[in-house]
Amino acid sequence: MRCLVVLNTRSPGIGDGLTYETGGLPVVIGSLVLAPLRKKSIEGIVVDVTNVAADTEETFTPRRIEQVIGTQPLLTPEAVEALWWVAEYYHCSLRSALTPFVPAAPWRNAAMKETMLCSFISEPAKPGVRQKVVLDFLREHGPLPRDALRRKTSAASATIRSLTEKGYIKEERTADIPPPVTAFETTEARPLLSPKQKRVCDMIAASEKPSLLFGITGSGKTEIYASLIADAAAQGKQSILLVPEILLTEYTVHRFRKMFAPERIAVIHSRLTSSARRNAWMRIRSGSVALIIGSRSALFSPCARPGLIIIDEEHEWTYKNEQTPRYNARDLAEKLCSLSGAKLVLGSATPSLEAWARAKQDHYTLARLPERYMQRALPVVRVIDLGTVRFGSLYPFSPPLIQAIEERLARKEQTVLFLNRRGVASAMLCLQCRKRLVSPVSQLPYTVHRGPDNRMYLLDHVAGVSAEVPAECPHCRSTQLLPVGAGTQKLENILSSLFPTAKILRADSDTLQHPEQMRQVLDDMRERRADILLGTQSVVKGLDLPMVTLAAVLVADIGLSLPHFRAGERVFQLLTQLTGRSGRAGPGDVYIQTFRPDAPEVQAAAAHRTEEYLETELTLRTLLNYPPSVPMIRLLITGEKAEPRARSVHQAVLRLITHLGVEAQATVAPTLFGIGLEWHVLIKGNDIHQLLAHIPLTDVTVDVDPMDVV
Ligand code: ADP
Ligand code: ZN
Strand 701-704 and strand 632-638: pairing? Predict the structure, then answer.
């Protein structure tokens, strides 16, 4: 027998595994083994096992596996199958694909250990006092692991050993697997769903296909998840609930602590130490955990009895891994569910165009919840045209917004303010013609920076050249030029000068390092110890804070100004999320401050017309030949020679397209923030996967279904 082993080493050239002879050892797919590599012995995972026919003529004799570690394979056959899929679909090595499936090395620390299980056989005619204690205990409670028996009876090892040697106790090696659970106990009554929620929940439960739960903000998606998780638990099956942001795991755990005892919940995210992660990994594999909550890496949890995967806020970009393996959690979850028979549920108030298209093609079951729980009204949305506001030094706080915040403070209600993802000024905008200042060298928008003397200057990241801020707009000669996207720190300062007595909280990945700090922020809001929550979109989205009656985005245009086919979708998602934060318990208001009040995504979000927006956008994508109507692959090239190399890859791709007769297009360009040292080739069209097999890609990063394309 032969096996293919992916070794835990960075040695070049063996990323796709090495072949070994099993040498009669009990090697199966997923086994953790020790295998020789040159003069060393290295841990590896078996990803394939094959029979070699006797008459095969071989050019080499493979070396033998040295040892199989653990009583059970480290990975399930489904996990191994999934990793093959990741390697093939995302075009990476087996070793890269394996990394997220295994805990930190050494892997043997996570292997199933053997224990010696003692059982009662018979009793000597005249047992000693100590012997009698052990034997009686074992007769009543056995079979027991030797260690446990010793602890429970305070017996000496010698006592147990002597009983074993004389045959009164039998010792057997057993894997440390707990007996199968028939049901996980829940510590709260099942969520009581409204009739509409119940209908949707039943529809999802009955569906053989993955489901897209398209429920507006406040419709009670979390309660539906809870109900589905309870269903799975009743059958002893494990659920995985993915949230888009590490800081939100704590918030979600809080909800589910009502449902399960602490030892039935595991939290997985990339900020765990490797030992905490390994611990969680082993608890999950042992089958004792009912619910796993985490960010995208929780998807790789080694569930012993997988039953359900839920991806909350399915549209979020954080579900795409931007390092090799560059998987998208949504697609990988679909693969995992099809392999294990688990149910997949994607939830969103603003589905991604990808999920929407699949629902429309009947590939997903579409379950709609178009009303808020208890028919609560959606907030009133007001769009403020930033181009017509005279700010002075208070930019970007417009007078109507300032007044609205004042009113909340007077009424002891709360306000949530959305910041843009990064606090840097991103562009210089002309208020007259609404155009951005563009670099004549790269033809791309300048970004605005401040020098050490605090003077503003413009930077062309791509060409690496800087320029003075001109006195007037080169397009229309207006002198009304404004840097858009002020820094978060600065915003906080303005805010506290405007409202000196207000208690202001900030929540972004800079101020919060750990999910537990996020809980403090949430507690402060819930218990009214704070008046205003100023947070980045990624953190503030999705929160359920009942006393918030005003939500505002300070400058909605950051995404709009990027030359990206998903820019509109992203802004729409942000604005709809924003409307979801306000008035969750009573009437609420939403302020959208924007330089482009007429943009379709702004209009649609303000009018709560989600489905209409999705349909229009999908039509547009199809017309313009963009994902999800066609697949896309991005080839990234970095380094000093990025440009010539990218151009030659581009030429090779074009030749292949013609040669193979594939219907596809390819473009080459520098990336927006790559300062000329990063270039990419974008390929879109059906059947473009096959092109990859024919291009040398050693110095190229392949990004299949890319999110980021600028
Ligand atoms: P979504 O995730 O869709 O925005 P949530 O699940 O946060 O909505 O629900 C909105 C609010 O309504 C929450 O405070 C939630 O507790 C409450 N809610 C929703 N459904 C129910 C229900 N069936 N029973 C009790 N409360 C509910
Ligand atoms: Zn102008």
Answer: antiparallel
The tokens describing 471, both together, are 């006195």
Strand partners, 115: 174
Query: Which ligand ends up closest to the CA of 369?
Result: 1
- For ligand 2, the distance from its centroid to the CA atom of residue 531, given in whole angstroms, is 38
Between the CA of 262 and the centroid of ligand 2 the distance, in Å, is 59
> Which residue's alpha carbon is at the smallest distance from atom 22 of ligand 1?
193
Beta bridge partners of 381: 590
- Name the amino acid, one letter, at 459: L
Residue of minimum CA distance from atom 15 in ligand 1: 220
Amino acid at 335: K
Q: What distance in angstroms lies between residue 585's CA and the mean position of ligand 1's atoms?
A: 10
> Considering every ligand atom, which ligand is closest to the CA of 543?
1
**Minimal-distance CA residue to ligand 1 atom 9:** 220
Phi and psi at 403, nearest 5°, equal -65, -40
- The encoded tokens of residue 107 equal 């892997």
Identify the pLDDT of residue 558.
61
| Structure confidence by residue, pLDDT tens digits, 324-344 | 999 999 999 999 999 999 999
Q: In angstroms, what is the span from residue 97 Cα to ligand 2's centroid?
A: 49
The pLDDT of residue 188: 86
Backbone torsion region of residue 69, taken as left when φ is above 0, otherwise alpha when ψ lies between -120 and 50, otherwise beta: beta
Ligand 2 centroid, distance to 268 Cα (angstroms):
49
**Ligand lying closest to the C-alpha of residue 474:** 2
Look over the chain and give the mean of its residue pLDDT values, rounded to a whole number: 89
Q: What is the CA(218)–ligand 1 centre distance, in A? A: 6
CA-closest residue to ligand 1 atom 14: 544
pLDDT at 245: 87
Helix (H) or strand (E) holding 94: helix 94-98
Q: Which ligand is nearest to the CA of 252?
A: 1
Average pLDDT over residues 230-245: 96
Rounded to 5°, angle at Cα 88 from 357 and 280: 85
Name the band, by pLDDT with cuts 50, 70 and 90, for residue 423.
very low
Give ligand 1 pocket residues (Cβ under 6 A): 191-194, 197, 215, 217-223, 373, 544, 580, 584
CA distance to 106, 172, 208, 577, per residue, from 359 (Å): 42, 53, 13, 21
Asked if 437 and 458 count as a contact pair (C-beta separation under 8 A), the reply is yes
Ligand 1 nearest atom to the CA of residue 225, by list position:
6
Digit-coded pLDDT (tens) for 25-37 = 999 999 999 999 9
CA 659 to CA 394: how far, in whole Å?
59
**Residue that the structure tokens 């087996």 belong to:** 94
CA angle 269, 275, 278 (to 5 degrees): 65
Domains and CATH numbers, the chain: 2-109 (3.40.1440.60), 114-175 (1.10.10), 195-375 (3.40.50.300), 380-426+485-620 (3.40.50.300), 632-704 (3.30.70.260)
Gyration radius (Cα) of the chain, Å: 30
- Residue 673 — pLDDT band, cuts 50, 70, 90? low
Q: Which residues have CB under 8 Å from 663's CB, separation 6+?
A: 685, 686, 687
Percent of the chain exceeding pLDDT 70 equals 94
Q: Determine the residue of 315, 544, 579 to mutate for testing ligand 1's pocket, defined as the one with the most ligand atoms within 8 A of the Cβ atom.
A: 544
The CA distance from 596 to 557, in Å, is 7
Task: Give the 3-state secondary structure of 64-111.
Answer: ECCEEECCCCCCCHHHHHHHHHHHHHCCCCHHHHHHHHCCCCCHHHHC
Question: For ligand 1, atom 10, which residue shows the shortest CA distance?
Answer: 218
What span, in angstroms and rounded, lies between the C-alpha atoms of 196 and 164? 63
Cβ pair 630, 637 in contact under 8 A: no
**Per-residue pLDDT at 543:** 83
Looking at ligand 1, which atom is closest to the CA of residue 544? 7
Report the candidate in 296, 270, 268 with the shortest Cα–Cα distance to residue 281.
Answer: 268
Residue 316 near residue 247 (C-beta atoms within 8 A): no
